[in-house]
């Protein structure tokens, strides 16, 4: 029985008969940063929803520290691409949501909200409503809101997919920093290979139809990473390798389509 | 240089890709970005807006004045504004206008309040739980086609001529529509938001109280605002039958004595109260739904 997240033979077939995932074996140790890359439709979101407990696997088991995942909970915070916030709550009240459901004092809650707002650089926006924020700011709120519950693992489903290149770079550096500051485990889904290699300590490539683990590659880059890392030969080599894998498993999937 | 090379690139591509016989696509004439008053959603100046708003009331008033003072219409059919004002003043002075207004307003508050107490929880349940939707939607979808007015004879048989039959007309007329509209407002809560809340530790009870209800509240108030107009119409209709007070009763009574000036005065009072109710609910909604886009 290993510590951390463990997927053993996990499969998911939707009621309609769509076999989306099959035989997924994957373990993530506490404190790891794992990126799952794969073509669109390979079942990345489905995988994350299974870990979050929003979907039930039709085969295999998902466990955390040996205990099976039975439903959604604050120990597995999920942030999706659109970063759904509570539009009627201020930024600070959004971050406070999970804490309001716990037995902690008001002062303790306020202190923690302040810390996370500071961490994501939104102290000045504490009283703003989500409607007035930019896309990147909203994602920061969503991440702070999930982190405030001190999850074992932070699940990110293409959180920067809708952002422009510059904001995305800022957010990537920000996310690495948050990961190092909080020591939380991160499982992030993305179809952006450069992002995956830049952020993760390990990149898992999913093959499509049905989704299964095609490759599991360690990222041997320095822990201290800035954007310059992306120009190093090691980074480029790894990025090319992962890109080729994703493309290979994508073309295998689309081979029957006339070119 | 071949002729193909001298053509513009788009035409050249056409030549070489087997579309040579396609005629030139007709082009739109140049246009201003948002030309003309027919351009949808085009802003108008505040001056134009207020002028049109004023005309919206003043034109019908002018037509009324012109017709009624022309001498060509029998004043029994169409009283003059002056006669209507006199009738209003007469009713106000005698106090009957106030007792009638109070009776009608009281019925609306009670009947509409009762309808809200029934329809908001029902609609909320239908929008929140699939089992509630499946169990209630067919019957409510059917019953809402029965006109409330058609129930009046039945309700008088069942409940007598007193207050309860009038309140029942109001409730029946409002409750089904409001239930379905509340359900629709609740169904607009995004699934992703519910899922995000669950991964923050929200239980079903927390979802209902802290996510679904606040998200749906502005929509629920909107539904109430639309249906409050229906309630106000229904109370007047209910009072047309076997009532001894109320603005509807006043209209029937005045009709019996051919006092069209009184009918006009009461209609204006009904309109003014309706507008006040609408403005009040609109202000409430804008305050609570400040966050909506
Ligand atoms: N509820 C569902 N019922 C049936 N099929 C589903 C359901 N949800 C997802 N699928 C199917 O599962 C497959 C994988 O979906 P998923 O959303 O996990 O892909 P993804 O890898 O996240 O893709 P993308 O990169 O486009 O987000 C798709 O073919 C999709 O049609
Ligand atoms: Mg996805």
TrEMBL record, chain A:
Highest rank taxon of the organism: Bacteria
Domain spans labelled ABC transporter: 5-233
Record InterPro entries: AAA+_ATPase, ABC_transporter-like_ATP-bd, ABC_transporter-like_CS, ABC_transporter_ATP-bind, P-loop_NTPase
UniProt-listed SUPFAM superfamilies: P-loop containing nucleoside triphosphate hydrolases
Keywords: ATP-binding, Nucleotide-binding, Transport
Any one GO MF annotation of this record: ATP hydrolysis activity
Gene3D superfamilies: P-loop containing nucleotide triphosphate hydrolases
Stored Pfam families: ABC_tran
PANTHER family found in the cross-reference section: ALIPHATIC SULFONATES IMPORT ATP-BINDING PROTEIN SSUB (PTHR42788:SF13), TAURINE IMPORT ATP-BINDING PROTEIN-RELATED (PTHR42788)
Protein name per UniProt: ABC transporter ATP-binding protein
Organism: Actinomadura craniellae
TrEMBL record, chain B:
InterPro entries the record matches: MetI-like (IPR000515), MetI-like_sf (IPR035906)
One cellular component term from this protein's GO annotations in UniProt: plasma membrane
Protein's organism: Actinomadura craniellae
Membrane topology: Multi-pass membrane protein
Chain spans, region Disordered: 1-25
GO biological process entries: transmembrane transport
Sequence similarity: Belongs to the binding-protein-dependent transport system permease family.
Biased composition (Basic and acidic residues): 12-25
Bilayer-crossing regions: 108-129, 141-161, 167-186, 229-252, 264-284
Primary subcellular site in the record, as a coarse category: membrane
Compartments it resides in: Cell membrane
Pfam families assigned to the protein according to its UniProt record, in alphabetical order: BPD_transp_1
PROSITE patterns: ABC_TM1
Keyword presence, Nucleotidyltransferase: no
Alphabetical keyword list: Cell membrane, Membrane, Transmembrane, Transmembrane helix, Transport
Protein's UniProt keywords contain Transport: yes
Family matches, as CDD domains: TM_PBP2
Domain ABC transmembrane type-1: 101-285
Name of the featured protein: ABC transporter permease
Entry-linked PANTHER family: ABC TRANSPORTER PERMEASE PROTEIN MJ0413-RELATED (PTHR30151:SF0), ALKANE SULFONATE ABC TRANSPORTER-RELATED, MEMBRANE SUBUNIT (PTHR30151)
Family annotation (SUPFAM superfamilies): MetI-like
